[in-house]
Write a structure and sequence with these properties.
The longest helix has 25 residues, at 326-350. The chain has 12 helices and 20 strands. Helix 2 (82-99) packs across helix 4 and helix 5 crosses helix 11 (406-418). The protein has a 6-stranded mixed β-sheet, with helices on both faces. Strands 9-8-10-7-20 form a 5-stranded antiparallel β-sheet, sandwiched between helices. A 5-stranded mixed β-sheet has the order 14-13-12-17-18, with helices on both faces. The relative contact order is 0.16. By secondary structure, it is of the alpha/beta class. It has helices spanning 31-36, 82-99, 139-153, 198-209, 221-229, 232-237, 269-279, 284-294, 326-350, 373-381, 406-418, 443-457, and strands at residues 37-43, 47-55, 61-70, 74-75, 78-79, 111-116, 121-131, 158-170, 173-176, 186-197, 214-220, 239-244, 249-255, 258-265, 307-309, 323-325, 360-364, 384-387, 393-394, 430-437. The two termini are 36 Å apart. Among the domains are: 14-118 and 202-220 and 391-417, ATPase, nucleotide binding domain (Nucleotidyltransferase, domain 5), CATH 3.30.420.40; 232-389, Nucleotidyltransferase, domain 5 (2-Layer Sandwich). The radius of gyration is 23 Å and the shape is globular. The structure holds adenosine-5'-triphosphate and magnesium ion. The site of adenosine-5'-triphosphate has 25 residues, from helix 7 and helix 8.
């Protein structure tokens, strides 16, 4: 719900509601709650959650409604059953609305910001040259450079999700934080746009429309996880956030306060659960319970003595307990965790971003709660690691203030920053200096240039 935006009379998707679904009441929100309320939705592989928040007049965000549901119809970040997702969304949103009903004056929300899973996004880097010709650099110059990037990255099946000005050079002088008001001849704007597969955006939009919800904006999940968990110094000095979810692990690299790279791998905590279920021949539900109660990423000296009762699959009431040593459980978990960190390291190294990413990592996401994870990560990534949970938001309870909710909390921060945005004006005189895509056909050469550009700036 953008600030000052007049709600349309009729939700666009109302006509598309399925016949067998009870129609939601028509939304006729009064102006007052509309103006300062934002909502965020995370359609994850393990859970679907909705946060509704109030933006305070003097800054700050207060969460006033929370709803979450076990996810249905999502595999490794991809919607595989639209109907199941729609139903789970409706339950999560309705719970959040109920909790916020006083501030919403009993009205349902009519639009949300939505996360795009990292596995459906691509991180790009490009430099746009803007001719200043002796004038002061204006906001229009900067906004125009951002707008111009749209045409360069938005092609084929990809759509621009957001673009961040990651750095500036004025007449060759690099390391400028904000060039506005400065005078020069030529401005280079280093941009880090993020695109997403249009199919993914379309499916999320369709699931929301079926719930009579419009999309206020999309945000890449790894970026949101960083916004929620990193402190300013970490973002400035260079830091990588790793969000270990159920079906995916997302990576976002920040430097000089800005996102400069993001990626994801289709491996998460659910793979650990499946490994346990297979390795101990128990059900997925029991494997999940055993993992959260007794699981660890690496062995300790007491593991051999500790015994765990593992119910055999298919036996409702086993005649006798089936004890296994904890070391057997850890022996199943550890290789998958090592593989996950190795895949993360490969992403950073192969894309030439490992050095720029700094020596600090923040681990978040539901799967980051496995004891011993930091030790393994530290060894494989050769970086200092801390666990991260959402910061900056008021109103999050203990249960919903944990790492599994980091990306959804970060989405609220993103939403609050963009609630007042207007579409950037497109300037005419922008001249592409170096359009690079990290995933382009000439990745090696392009990446080399991007890496040196980054190295000179960070
Ligand atoms: N205490 C715990 N210890 C270990 N793992 C846990 C714990 N609690 C939750 N998990 C794991 O966290 C994962 C879910 O994390 P999260 O809620 O962040 O996923 P998601 O956002 O729905 O998924 P994704 O981001 O991959 O689409 C599951 O694999 C679950 O087993
Ligand atoms: Mg997630």
């Amino acid at each position: 719900m953008k600030k000052g935006k007049t709600p349309p009379e009729q939700p666009a998707a109302a006509d598309a509601a399925p016949k067998d679904k009870p129609a939601k009441p028509q939304l006729r929100r009064k102006a007052a709650p509309e103006s300062n309320i934002i909502a965020a939705l995370d359609i994850g592989s393990s859970k679907i959650c909705c946060f509704i928040a109030e933006m305070r007049p003097h800054g700050g965000i207060e969460v006033i409604g929370i709803g979450h549901q076990a996810s249905r119809g999502v595999k490794a970040g991809t919607i595989v059953d639209l109907k199941a997702v729609e139903t789970a969304i409706s339950h999560a949103v309705e719970s959040a609305e109920m909790m916020a009903s006083r501030q919403l004056q009993g009205q349902p929300i009519r639009s949300v910001y939505a996360l795009v899973p990292g596995v459906h996004t691509k991180s790009h880097q490009m430099s746009v040259n803007v001719k200043i010709s002796g004038h002061e650099v204006s906001d229009r110059d900067v906004q125009g450079a951002l707008a111009h990037s749209r045409g360069a990255v938005q092609h084929g099946r990809d759509e621009l999700v957001h673009v961040i000005a990651a750095g500036y050079a004025l007449d060759g002088q690099r390391g400028i934080n904000d060039p506005r008001g400065m005078t020069g001849q030529s401005l280079d704007v280093l941009l880090s746009p993020v695109t997403a597969q249009s199919t993914s955006l379309r499916n999320i939009t369709a699931a929301l429309h079926q719930n009579h919800l419009e999309v206020d904006g999309f945000c890449a999940a790894p970026y949101a996880a960083g916004l929620a968990t990193l402190v300013e110094d970490e973002k400035d000095l260079g830091c990588t956030v790793i969000d270990m979810g159920g079906g995916t692990t997302s990576i976002a690299v920040f430097a000089q306060g800005k996102l400069i790279y993001s990626a994801a791998i289709p491996v998460g905590g659910n793979h650990v659960t499946s490994d346990i279920a297979r390795g101990l021949t128990t059900s997925v539900a029991d494997a999940e319970r055993i993992k959260t109660l007794y699981g660890a990423a690496h062995a300790t000296s007491t593991d051999d003595g500790a015994l765990i009762d593992v119910p055999p699959i298919g036996e409702e009431e086993p005649l006798q307990p089936n004890y296994i040593p904890k070391s057997l459980l850890v022996g199943i978990i550890q290789p998958r965790i090592e593989e996950t960190f190795e895949l993360v390291r490969a992403k950073l190294v192969d894309n030439g971003i490992n050095q720029i990413a700094g020596r600090r990592v923040v681990l978040t996401g539901g799967a980051s709660q496995l004891p011993g994870l930091c030790d393994i990560g530290q060894l494989i990534l050769d970086k200092q690691i801390r666990l991260g949970r959402p910061q900056r938001l008021r109103g999050l309870a203990e249960a919903t203030g944990g790492p599994a909710f980091a990306a959804c909390a970060g989405l609220l921060t993103y939403a609050a920053e963009h609630a007042m945005d207007e579409t950037p004006r497109t300037a005419q005189s922008y001249n592409f200096a170096l359009p690079f895509a990290l995933h382009g056909a000439f990745q090696g050469n392009m990446l080399q240039k991007v890496t040196s550009w980054l190295k000179e700036n960070w």
